[in-house]
Design goal:
The protein has about 210 residues and is α+β, with helices and mostly antiparallel strands. The protein folds into three domains: about 5-50, Aspartate Aminotransferase, domain 1 (Alpha-Beta Complex); about 55-145, Winged helix-like DNA-binding domain superfamily/Winged helix DNA-binding domain (Arc Repressor Mutant, subunit A), CATH 1.10.10; about 150-205, Herpes Virus-1 (2-Layer Sandwich), CATH 3.30.40.10. It has helices at about 5, 10-25, 60-75, 85-95, 105-115, 130-135, 140-145, 175-185, and strands spanning about 30-35, 40-45, 120, 125-130, 160-165, 175, 205. A three-stranded antiparallel β-sheet has the order 6-5-7. Helix 3 crosses helix 4 and helix 4 crosses helix 5. The protein binds zinc ion (2 copies). This is 14355_t:CDS:1.
């Protein structure tokens, strides 16, 4: 089930799968997702062959890409499901890569990642992954960070902003808008998997 599918105009899914049949011949496809914040649909034309992160090579140097990979690791593996990194942490990481970047070079590059919409910088200065990164680098992210990136129970997209079950071992995750949607049709607010009371205050993401 997906919100976007339901929002999509009649026949649109069919249209997309027809196009994708052709695109797949050249290792590309249209991929659907939604903004994690508000659930608005997002589409991207993505490469489906091999190393997705290689596509960054047209825009960035190998050193810049290795910094980007470290940033992604920092964000994905952040404590407490925060899925974000402070600018201090991000800058510190630049000095740890094989070919270290100066602070000012790292600052300039971080801004480029934000301007190019690979990263988002929040009001409090923390960096997180953009929807573009989650969508276009999905295979890379799933390969590298399988244990960290868990899908939403309702829409099956990766959750880096949302809510989690109170039970540590339980894998139930929702985007905020997916939780609202799901619980509005339920009599009791319990985890769909383990049935414990669902607390909307168990936040995933920048907090
Ligand atoms: Zn969702
Ligand atoms: Zn649960």
């Amino acid at each position: 089930m997906s919100i976007n599918k339901e929002r999509a105009p009649e026949g649109f899914q069919e249209f997309v799968s027809t196009i994708n049949q052709k695109l797949n011949l050249v290792d590309m496809e249209f991929r659907r997702s939604h903004e994690e914040d508000d659930g608005n649909p997002v589409w991207a034309l993505v490469n489906t062959n091999g190393d997705e992160i290689a596509k960054l090579a047209t825009e960035y140097s190998p050193v810049e890409i290795s910094y980007f990979k470290r940033l992604i690791e920092l964000i994905v593996t952040a404590d407490d499901d925060a899925f974000s990194a402070s600018s201090i942490m991000a800058l510190k990481e630049a000095s740890k890569i094989k070919t270290p970047l100066t602070k000012s070079a790292a600052e300039t590059l971080l801004q480029r990642f934000v301007d190019d919409k690979w990263l988002i910088q929040s009001q409090n200065g923390k960096y997180s992954m953009s929807q573009r990164t989650i969508l276009e680098l999905q295979a890379y992210l799933k390969d590298e960070f399988e244990d960290y990136l868990i899908e939403c129970i309702l829409c099956y997209d990766i959750v880096t902003k949302g809510q989690r079950c109170d039970v540590q071992e339980c894998k139930s995750r929702f985007h905020h808008h997916c939780a609202r949607r799901y619980f509005s049709s339920q009599n009791e607010k319990v985890c769909p998997a383990c049935k414990i009371v669902w607390k909307s205050s168990n936040i995933i993401g920048d907090h």
